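The records we work with from here on pair a chain with its fold. These numbers are not coordinates but entries in a learned vocabulary of local backbone shapes. To see the layout at work, look at the sequence and tokens printed below:
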Amino acid sequence: DFAAMRLALRTDFSQSFRVSWQDELVFPEQPVLLTADQIGELARQLCVLRLDINNYLALIRALLAQQSIKTGEAAEKPFAEPSGAAVPPHQEVTLTASQIQGLYECLATVRHDINGQGAVIMAVLELMRFKPQDKDRLLAKLVTVPATIEEKMDVFCAAFERAFGTKGSPGLPEQSFGIGGSREESVAGLGEASGSRLVSILVEQPSKIRECVNDFSDQFEKMVGIIRQPAP
């Protein structure tokens, strides 16, 4: 049964939660000092990641709305626009070893959960190719995906803001946001695109988002001094 393919997504980010990725990581044993510039750059990268994810979720919602799949939401959310209301810290921040490990556990769990939801999306789209007559039933499997991913990102963003004293989202330059290849197509065009066009773009997004999350994770590891070592 397809429902059995869903991953159980937990919301517990406590210190007691341990997963296998720790076997390949060496965490700093002493407090780590980050400058205001380093924190500001991490906050900017997190904003870019969240923007890409929001547009990814808007694409899923657009497909569901076009196929008249009820999402249970009050209104369809539009493609995201960058915000200029950033309040980055103006001073350095020192994180303890336990703070670094706890924050990274949260990030790693969010990364795992987003990738798991991406696997659900890919499975649905693949099954639709072979069973187009079951399209509505299959697409209904995606109804909870946007809210689930948003919940996980909210948890990490809140933890990030608490740890680094940031607030809001840094203003971003004009750029490509990954969906459809250009900002104009992402924001203005995809909401009106055909169902086949939405599907063809959506099928590429889980892997792109996985790369975006991994890139942010790699940058976070570098800045806080987490070292990766090959597992024995």
Q: What stands out?
A: Residues 1-22, 78-87, 171-188 have pLDDT under 50 and may be disordered. The helical segments are 36-66, 97-130, 135-139, 145-164, 183-189, 195-202, 205-224. The two ends are 36 Å apart (CA to CA). The chain has seven helices and four strands.
